[in-house]
Amino acid sequence: MAEIQRVGDVMMSNFTKVEGIMKVSDALHMMRSKKINAVLVEPRDDSDVYGIMTLKDIARKVISQRRKLHEAHVYEIMSKPVLSVTSDMPIPFAARFLTNFSVSYAMVIENNEITGMVSLNGMVDRWED
Fold it and tell me: DSSP states of 6-26 as a string?
């Protein structure tokens, strides 16, 4: 029987966190330089939760609306809250979980700490049948 692939096998441990007040133009510049498609947005305080901003958010909520990148803030276009999974979750269940909510990314949490991010693209790209 083949070994079950798990989220930890395909997660990205090089995730980036940003402040919500950051301008979308600055976040996009950073994302391009790091070659990443999403950033986690830090909670404002202890009663807040993480958000996420993706390239898709920039396209849908800034560019298609003819807004200026340097005038929009990350907090205005991010999605919140971010789904989370554990690194030992089997990939088929993680893929089903994300698709059930129509999202492409989730945080990977272990011991109440974010250890990475996982994406549907990453799951498909690294899936071994």
Answer: BHHHH-BS---EE-TTSBHHH
